[in-house]
Amino acid sequence: MRRRYPILRALAAQVLAVALVALAAFLIVNLGRLPVHWVLLVLAQAGLAVWIGKRFGLVRWWSVFQALFVPALLGLNALALPPVAYLAAFLIVLLLNWNSFRHGVPLYLTSNQATLRLAELLRERGPEFKFIDLGCGLAGPLCQLARRYPLAQFTGVETAPLTFLIAWLRALPRRNCHIRYRSLWRVSLTPYDVIYCFLSPLPMSDLWQKALVELRPGAVFISNTFGIPGVSPDEEYSLPDRRRTRLLVWKK
Ligand SMILES: C[S@@+](CC[C@H](N)C(=O)[O-])C[C@H]1O[C@@H](n2cnc3c(N)ncnc32)[C@H](O)[C@@H]1O
Predict the structure, then answer these.
(1) Model confidence over 82-125: pLDDT tens digits?
(2) Residues with Cβ within 8 Å of residue 184, at least 6 apart in sequence
(3) Architecture of domain 112-251 in CATH?
(4) Domain ranges (residues) in the chain
(5) How much distance in Å is there from the Cα of 197 to the middle of ligand 1?
(6) Which of 33, 120, 125, 251 shows its CA 20 to 30 Å from the CA of 50?
(7) Nearest atom (ligand 1) to Cα of 109
(8) Is 156 in the pocket of ligand 1 (CB under 6 A)?
């Protein structure tokens, strides 16, 4: 449970934080006979939600969601938008971040610097190779690399419905780039020379076990930022982008 269903743990942390703050406010106002400003309550709830979320095993990037959840709800409420706007916003976030809720892997994108470094790393492969992005997001790096290496074959797999649709449409004009609606766990890595992923800490151990079985000799496994516990990369490149991401390379 500690590694699975992060959305449920995040929700439980929010509810618990609201309950604790409400109880504290009740005691301060009724027993202490002191006034409490609502801004203080919102800040306390945000801090508590972050802290409880960490205790519940949520990884670091969840802190941002945890801290902003209730303030965002209050802000939206103040805008008095029609109910359908909330539903539409919720559906868009859900369909883009499907795997965040199910597997703890949200949508965030490879930086331009990382894509350029990837392009450099691919140069040593010559013009023809097969590349797969496991969880290709909006297919930005794939389309850029497919343009740069027109004789190579690029594949992306993605299971967040709206993310997949956008990626698929983006790749349509590129004859050497294909996007499939398929789980990364259900695709064989054997046909590929280069396996790229930018996921989260959660799936890395299991993914490495899969790679050990399926990677063919000469293939490389490249993870953006997230390492494999207990397995040092053969090469590591730090990038000067905003997130200070790293490309970690394992060679078979
Ligand atoms: C951090 S994003 C990276 C997107 C893209 N690779 C990039 O670097 O710009 C991770 C993506 O992996 C997708 N994903 C997570 N688990 C997946 C799975 N089991 N099968 C396919 N895609 C998955 C998510 O939906 C998300 O779009």
Answers:
(1) 878 878 888 888 888 777 766 778 788 899 999 999 999 999 99
(2) 134, 135, 157, 197, 207
(3) 3-Layer(aba) Sandwich (3.40)
(4) 6-80, 112-251
(5) 8
(6) 33
(7) 9
(8) no
